[in-house]
Amino acid sequence: MTADNTSGLSEFEKQRLANIAERDALLKKLSLEAQSAGIFTSPRTVGGNGPKPKKRAPPKRIKEEESPLPRRQSSRLRGLTADSEVAKRKAEDDYEAAREAERAKKVRRTDSYSANDMFIAGQKLNGDGLIGVDVVNKGVAEPYVRTFGDADVKKTTDKDLKALREEMNGLSLWGQWDPQRIKITPERVYAMAFHPSESKPLIFAGDKMGHLGVFDASQEKPETGDDEDDDDPDPVLTTLKPHTRTITAMMVHPSKPTRLYTASYDSSIRELDLEKTTSVEKYGPQSTNIDEALSGLDMAPEDPNTLYWTTLNGTFGRYDMRSKLSEKTVTHWQLSEKKIGGFTLCPSQSHYFATASLDRTLKLWDLRKLSTNDPVPVAEHESRLSVSHAAFNAAGQIATTSYDDTIKLYDVGAKGFSSWKPGHTLSDQEFRPDTVVRHNCQTGRWVTILRPQWQMNPQSHIQRFCVGNMNRFVDVYSSSGDQLAQLGGDGITAVPAVAVFHRSKNWVAGGTASGKVCLWM
């Protein structure tokens, strides 16, 4: 606007127009500077001659396909009279059909599976099955900052403890492939287990969608030529799908090395034959309409035929696989009004077992005197927040993780539990943690809950267990709460939340929310 045009305006209006002009000039200047710096570019017009951006190939990923609900359409497009009874019934029928299809996807399958029925991806299985003959016969800290290392080992004065710390800190990340390339399951890892064989590290992992991954870490990376075009092969992995929902627990009984037992939110326990690669259901409710999501699974070392499990409904169950499955052969105890997150039998006194619950309690039970009508625990301890898992070792020590950011250690072996008579109980004062270790257990929504896991047959008198660390490590502790190692390495970009020890070898594996596995040997 020229001076002549503004002559009739008030001083306020003149100042307003001047401010607008100054603002427009500043915005134009900033836009030009941003374009020259490459912060953003002007949108390409349709039919322009500029270079088209390269499209990246989507990553290969196996994921459960979700059935989309029927798309809504107007009555006119469907040839129906608007607001008619026909239209309403059609919409209701479509909705119910979609709901039923989604529910059917999650209903457990009770039939047996062959290898082809379960196979999803990876190496096609040959006559040797999943395992070879040689296996059968033979505290809160800064993010990502290490809190335990070589300096802590050097300060140790106890000779035995120092030797064990040096041994555990000597474990190194398996280096044949980068951890980012060892994708053992398509979805988040919920449960893991080592095969008990000492001849080679064979790892099983179960994920959120019911997939089972198998990884043989004895394989070696094939040599490639100097040519850049030579393919860099991925490690050999096998992915099966024995369950329709999350696999929450798994184990291989040492007296049955060719059988892998898995428990799932689909309410079933299945047995996978590792030689024939077939899967059969060993336990499940009488009706597939019964939702009894299983949270834990265990077997006594001296009894390879009896299954024990816990549920999200707070029940504990037992079933002898040698008997025909029926209501009479399965025993249930209602041990909690809330979810039991984890449990274990004591390996040396298998009539004792410990449960961890959302009701904030750790409870010790005796199967010799456990009423189905009114079960009474041997002992009980309440934490400030929910207890995630209770892990028993052969020495009678229990390790728990809790959302109050602690690892608690209870030593009932020192209290002479092996000589207790049926009906023996402990007072609240007698059953208290002997050691409390500060440990970040705030996993949030996307990371699997942290659970401690003991080495069942350690090769020294010092008991030890491993547990995931939110700083992208796996921590190893002794039964007295002394930290033995903090395992990490290059290439670990997610929290190895699901950490497991081999029964007897110093091999530790960790599974992440992206389905990757880390292995230290």
TrEMBL record:
Residues 85-104 have a biased composition (Basic and acidic residues). This is DNA damage-binding protein CMR1. Belongs to the WD repeat DDB2/WDR76 family. DNA-binding protein that binds to both single- and double-stranded DNA. Binds preferentially to UV-damaged DNA. May be involved in DNA-metabolic processes. Gene3D superfamilies: YVTN repeat-like/Quinoprotein amine dehydrogenase. GO terms for cellular component: nucleus. Residues 38-108, 218-238 are annotated as: Disordered. WD repeats lie at residues 352-368. Keywords: DNA damage, DNA-binding, Repeat, WD repeat. The keyword Transferase does not apply. PANTHER family: WD REPEAT-CONTAINING PROTEIN 76 (PTHR14773:SF0). GO terms for biological process: DNA damage response; regulation of DNA damage checkpoint. InterPro entries: WD40/YVTN_repeat-like_dom_sf (IPR015943), WD40_repeat_dom_sf (IPR036322), WD40_rpt (IPR001680), WD_repeat_DNA-damage-binding (IPR050853). Residues 225-234 have a biased composition (Acidic residues). Coiled coil: none annotated. GO terms for molecular function: DNA binding.
